[in-house]
């Protein structure tokens, strides 16, 4: 059965962010961005913590189970150096009858074979 990945890639979950959630390294900052968005959709706190730089990782993620993520759009991405990159994206959400969107520019850093999220600026 075709289970589309929540990140909107058009691939199956197992062939997309599911691989990263199981431990495969993100090959670039966009792949990590997608996998983290997908982890938010699935409430996968373990992956969110693992893919967060140690110095900025919050002690408590406190995901809100009532908030559903409904779409990801990567607006732009920019490599800053061999080991740092930025991704600008919009994510939409729903919470009961309320809907909203957030736009953030996120910073990522290469660590070992993969990438981690460092921090971001909301618009
Ligand atoms: Zn995906």
From TrEMBL:
It comes from Albimonas pacifica. It comes from the Bacteria. This is SEC-C motif-containing protein. Residues 30-120 form the YchJ-like middle NTF2-like domain.
